[in-house]
Every structure is written in C-alpha cells, then in structure tokens.
Amino acid sequence: RPRLDQHLGERCVRMQRIDIKELLARFMTDVIGSCAFGIECNTLENPNSQFRLMGKRMINLPKLKSLKVFFAMMFRKQAQALGIRYNDKDVADFFMNVVRDTIRYRAENGVRRDDFMQLLIDMMQENGAGAGESLTFEEIAAQAFVFFFGGFETSTTTLTFALHLLAQHPKAQRKARKCVRSTLAKHGNEMTYEAIKDMYYLECVIHETLRLYPPVASIHRMTSQPYQLPNGEVIPEGVGVIISNLAFQHDPTLFPDPLAFKPERFEDKTFAKTNPSYLAFGDGPRMCIAMRFGKLQTCLGLAMLLKSYTFSLEDCDVDRPLLIDPINLMYGPAGPVWLNVERYVEGSKSS
C-alpha cells in the first residue's frame, strides 16, 4: 500500500497528467502477484516486469487470436480438435514455472504465507483426502492462473472507469472522498478491513461503475438440461448461450436514465443483491468466485487514491465518454486514459 502512495506522491506534488489505466494495471499486478503467487512483482517501479508483460499478452490479443478465442468459447470440442489454445505456450509455461518454483521454495525453506497460494498448497498436501478431493499440481497452476487473469484486469478496468467518472462528476468525487476520510477518522486512520467495509458510498460508486461498464459484458453459459423460454421455445441441452449483461444494465425500463452516473441507485444495500438485472458478477452457481476479493481490492485502491489525491479532466485530450476497445477480451477503454492528478489539500476547492 505505501508504494502506491509513495509512487504517486513523488510525481503529484503539483498537478500531473497521468495515464491512470497503466498506473492501476501495474498496481493491481503487484496486488494479485502477492496474493495469488506470494511474489513481490514490484511492477510499480519496474513496468517491464515479467508479470506485467505476461499480463498484457493475456489480455491484449491480436484480432486473429481474439477470433480464435471466441470460437473456442462457443465451440469447445471443435476448438480442442483443432488444437486452438487460449494462451501462447510461453505464457502458459511462465505461470506453470512460477507456481512450480513457489511450491518448491516454500517446501524447501519451510515458508508459509497467508495467501491464496498457501491454501492451494495445503489442499494438495492434505492427508486423508478422498479420491478427487486433493489438488494436483496442474490444478493448482490452473487456479492460480485464473486468479491472476480474473483479478488484475477486471479490477484495473473498474478502477479506471470509476476514477474517470468521478473526474467527470466532481460532486460525487467530493462525497466519496468525504466518506473515505470520515470513515478512516473513526478507525484510527488505519486502512483496515473493517474500515474499508464501512465505506458505504465507495461501494455504491463501484456498483454503479460496474453497471455502466461491466468488464465482462457478456456471460457465456451452456445448458445442462433442456430449458423452456417464456415464449415456449426450448433450448436443448448442451447449447452455448450468451447473455448480454451490458444490455440488461443499460435498459431504461430496468434502470431509469441508464447512461447517467448515479451511485445513489445502490444506497439501498439490498439493491445489488436482489435486482436480477444487475449481473456485473454473473449469477447462479457459476457467478464470479472472487467477487468479494475483487470488490475489496477495488474499494481499497479507490480509498487509497481518493484519500490523498484529486482527479480532474481539464485539458486532458480524452474522449468523453471513453472509447471502448473492440478487440480486448474485457469491456475496457481503448488506449491510455489520461487524468490530471494532484495531491489533495484540506480546505481546497476539491474538499
């Protein structure tokens, strides 16, 4: 946590124009690298770290590769028969070697950490587990890879959009900052888990950002049994289905004034849970397994930044609203996202 504040503090004593998307991607790479692999990536200071470079290659695919991945998602058996793979071999080998080296190092040196990797290692070494209950090395590597892939890019995209929206809406930014600072005052100015959970308005900002810009804009499922639609038509078993949560969340009959940024929609804490049209994390037994972790790290990043910095758009040559990248697997902004960043001063016009 101190590294992000120190990294920005050295650059933003006065107003600076920063590509906030790149900064947040590097920060989230460090967070996920530590939590998923137990490795200090130090990507904030070294933007060309191996984790950052591999993360870019996982997400920023060439057009032909994106088409192949889409084909593989919709036609799994045919893709397997054709040998289509999601990741290039050297990317997959990199993560396999990281997991292998981490397991070996901890075993040889008696190292334990309170992180996701340790949970997986314990499950692999679990004594007395029945058939199929303990994890294999390949399963650990797959889970760590999914944790990294699903964690750093989705949170980066959400934070980027949230800060851009707050820069467009100074009143909401001031309210969010007041929420952060007043909550921290009640918690001894410590950024604890309890303090983060108490920042109710930040959660509203994040939910509204996800409603407008869900990083995963369509949900892919496969029918496990025949399903009858309201119009009487039946979808057979084993058919791939695409559900556009973006369309649901922009539907004016479900969300009045749907293109407006209104965090207050979510001030009723049950709204996000009980509204079936809000699908930012999916739904059902296959909904996002890391929802709580993702919301926590996004809230933490937003709280850290709003506590000490103000964000604005003046003189930034950015598109309003941001252009969406049509090739990226995530529903995210195309190219850099430039914001003016300045250290917050109590009593200033940003207060």
Automatic annotation (TrEMBL):
Membrane topology value: Peripheral membrane protein
This protein's GO CC annotations: endoplasmic reticulum membrane
Gene: 1268287
Cofactor: heme
Binding site for heme: C288
Source species, domain of life: Eukaryota
Sequence similarity: Belongs to the cytochrome P450 family.
Keywords from the named record: Endoplasmic reticulum, Heme, Iron, Membrane, Metal-binding, Microsome, Monooxygenase, Oxidoreductase
Stated name of the protein: AGAP012855-PA
Coiled-coil intervals, chain numbering: none
Location of the protein in the cell: Endoplasmic reticulum membrane; Microsome membrane
Gene Ontology molecular function terms on file: heme binding; iron ion binding; monooxygenase activity; oxidoreductase activity, acting on paired donors, with incorporation or reduction of molecular oxygen
